[in-house]
Write a structure and sequence with these properties.
single chain; alpha+beta; six-stranded mixed sheet; globular
C-alpha cells in the first residue's frame, strides 16, 4: 500500500470511529500520528488489509486476521450504500468456516449491522486496556451453517 493510500485509509478509519463512538475517541485522544503509527506498525503487520474505493477515494477498509475481522470501517458519507456489506462478504468468502469479531456494546449501529448479516453475540466482556470498554464478541458460523 502506497503512503498516500495508507493516509487515506487511516483518515477513513478515524472518521468512522469518531462517528460511531465519539465517547471513546474523545477519551482515548489519539492523534493522526498515533493512528498512522498503529496502522503501519500493528494493523498492516498482523492482518490482511482490503480497501473499498470509489474512483481515487478510499471509502472503506477491512483488516482480516485468520478467522477474525479485526477492523471494518466505512467512511460516514458512504455508509448505508453497501460498502460494509461488500467488505464483510469478502471476509466471509476468504474465511468460509466462520469468523469472529468484537465491537463495543454501546456501538448499536455496528451491532445491528453484524446481526443483520448473520453474526450472533456469543460473549460479553470488556476490551483490553487502555480502552477498557464493555464489548461484545460476535460469531458467524460459516457457509456450512447456511445450508444445514
Amino acid at each position: 500500500m502506497a503512503d498516500h493510500e495508507v493516509e487515506q485509509t487511516v483518515a477513513v478509519w478515524a472518521r468512522s470511529r469518531w462517528d460511531a463512538q465519539p465517547w471513546l475517541e474523545r477519551r482515548m485522544g489519539h492523534t493522526l500520528a498515533d493512528n498512522l503509527a498503529f496502522f503501519r506498525g500493528t494493523v498492516m503487520k498482523t492482518t490482511e488489509v482490503w480497501v473499498a474505493a470509489r474512483g481515487d477515494a478510499i471509502v472503506g477498509l477491512l483488516a482480516l486476521a485468520p478467522g477474525r475481522v479485526e477492523h471494518l470501517y466505512v467512511d460516514p458519507p458512504a455508509q448505508g450504500q453497501g460498502v460494509g456489506s461488500t467488505l464483510l462478504d469478502h471476509a466471509k468468502r476468504l474465511t468460509p468456516d466462520g469468523l469472529t469479531l468484537f465491537t463495543h456494546q454501546r456501538n448499536r449501529r455496528a451491532r445491528a449491522f453484524y446481526e443483520g448479516r448473520g453474526f450472533r453475540a456469543v460473549a460479553f466482556g470488556v476490551s483490553p486496556a487502555p480502552e477498557s470498554e464493555p464489548d461484545v464478541e460476535y460469531r458467524w458460523d460459516g457457509a456450512a451453517a447456511l445450508v444445514s
